[in-house]
Amino acid sequence: MNAAVRMAPELTPRALRAKSMISARRLSFAYDRRAVLSDLNLHIEAGEIVVLTGASGAGKTTLLTLCGALRSVQGGELEVLGRNMKGLNAKEQREVRSSIGFIFQSHHLLEALTAGQNVVMSMVGRAPVAEASRRAETALAALGLSHRVDAFPEQMSGGEQQRVAVARALVRDPKLILADEPTASLDDVSANIVKAAIRDAARRLSCAVLLVTHDARLFDIADRRLRLVDGAL
Question: Is 137 helix (H, G, I), strand (E, B) or coil?
Answer without folding.
Answer: helix
